[in-house]
Amino acid sequence: MKNNKKLSYALLATLLVSVTGCKLTQPVEQHTRIKSPEMFARQSDSTGIAAIQWKTFFADQHLVALIDTALQNNLDLKMAVQRIEMARAGILAARGAMLPVVGADVSGGGRKFGDYTMDGVGNYDTNFSENIDEDRRLPAPFMPDYFVGLRSSWEIDIWGKLKNQKKAAYNRLLASEKGRQAIVTGLIAEIARSYYELLALDTELDIIRKNIALQESAVETIKIQKEAGRANELGVRQLTAQLLNTRSLEYEVQQKIIEIENNVNLLTGRFPRAITRSSTLAESVPATVSAGVPAQMLRRRPDIQQAQLELQANYNEQQAAQLAFLPSLNITAFLGFNAFKSNLLFSSGSIAYSALGGLTAPLFNRKALKAGQKRAEAASLEALYAYNKSVLNGFREVSTSLKKLENTKQIGELKRQEVDVLQQAVVTSKDLFLTGYASYLEVITAQRSVLQEELNLTNVRKEQFLALVELYRALGGGWE
Predict the structure, then answer these.
(1) Residues 311 and 384: beta-carbon distance below 8 Å
(2) Which of 151, 241, 291, 478 is placed for a possible disulfide with 54 were both Cys, Cβ 3.0 to 4.6 Å?
(3) What is the pLDDT of residues 1-39, one digit of tens each?
(4) What SUPFAM superfamilies does the database record attribute to this sequence (predicted)?
């Protein structure tokens, strides 16, 4: 009767703990994410350029070959693959936590009970019993203990704590894969940007060398004019100084080319070497470029998808941290041979087994669990803010690139007209100088102006390509 009463108290206590924890089994309320606009500021149609595969989007085959080499050899990309493998190992660990732990156990030891203890007196008295044979007689005073067998422990996931931890590990694996895709999009964009910068520098180099030839001709002309008494030493020196300045620009551009080529080689996992490329920046930017709809960007941008998966993983971990306050059902068992004499260890009479199950719930030492819950809540909020920031950043990049494309097209058209006018001015100033109707200063001014504006026009064309590449990356294109 007394034992039944104790059992009733134990069952009542377990029931009270379970009822108290019923509130904890409810899903954690997830904070609302940012609501994005349904349309971009400037919209042409519903299909954006991000849907185009990068091998089709970039028409230059030299650029395609560079990107392909980078995707094979880039070290950042290889490190991202290893981070995926680490995340995959996290799934295996979480999955293993849901299964029984079984281990082989071979152990031996011994103990000596005090003579005035219950065990000591009991062991001493047992050896005088007529009901035991020689094999069952207890060693005295030191009693060995040998065990060979299997031991197991298993936490039954009755509340879903381990399941949520497994979900968190799986979402982190998906997030690491999205992180790799983000590196791919960034790598493709960086290679393309560097390639177009190289083409622009090649064009600048051609312009500078063409102007060097023109300025050398001007210097020779003014020297002849000086000998004929139609010019003075000041004009010779100023035109010569302008020629020297233009020659120094040639070396500056050559140095920039070397730096960008070395950077491209680093991205492609190669030692410094010349980059094979097209001769000039002959490719043109498409007349119309579509960004698609924001929903497509949110689904395609790897960094936004990564932030979303990290948010879900933190939510699962927050749920698991809350469920840790509930009672856990643990089962322990062993099966093997157990004896106090080594020669009897593997006999049939030495077979031993045990199974024990019990509910354990934290009652007093809950500070560590509360700290884990607080940490999970803070991490979940941080992940939410990171997701919102990635969405805002995505819209900022797309809007900036769209506007930059539009503005650089307008600037490029005006710069082209300006260059045409200045080139005509150079021809006119030279003719007027030869006939004595213009000074050498006007020739210098005209040549300097056309050189600067030709370089500016090249830079504007380069910025158009960079804006197009940035828009392609901002929309999530390139990782497929």
Answers:
(1) yes
(2) 478
(3) 445 544 454 454 455 454 445 556 667 777 777 787 777
(4) Outer membrane efflux proteins (OEP)
Q: For residue 428, which amino acid is it?
A: T
Domain ranges of the chain: 18-98+159-326+371-474, 103-156+331-360
Q: Which residues pair with 360 in a beta bridge?
A: 328
Distance set, CA 107 to CA 110, 141, 150, 346 (Å): 10, 20, 11, 14
Residues forming beta bridges with residue 358, ordered by sequence position: 330
pLDDT value at residue 42: 57
Cis peptide before 141 (omega within 30 of 0): yes
Structure confidence at residue 22 (pLDDT): 52
- Among 25-34, 153-162, 239-248, the minimum mean pLDDT is found in 25-34
Mean pLDDT of the chain: 86
Give 438-470 pLDDT, tens digit per residue: 777 787 788 888 888 888 999 999 999 999 999
Q: Can you tell me which residue has the tokens 């709809």?
A: 293
CATH superfamily of the domain spanning 18-98+159-326+371-474? Outer membrane efflux proteins (OEP) (1.20.1600.10)
Asked whether 77 and 479 are in contact (CB, 8 A), the reply is: no
pLDDT of residue 19: 47
Across 289-380, the runs of DSSP E, i.e. the strands, are 328-339, 351-360
Instruction: Please answer whether residues 207 and 456 qualify as being in contact, where contact means their C-beta atoms are separated by less than 8 angstroms.
Output: no
Strand order in the sheet with 101-111: 101-111, 143-156, 328-339, 351-360
Distances (CA, A) of 274 to 154, 257, 261, 263: 62, 10, 7, 11
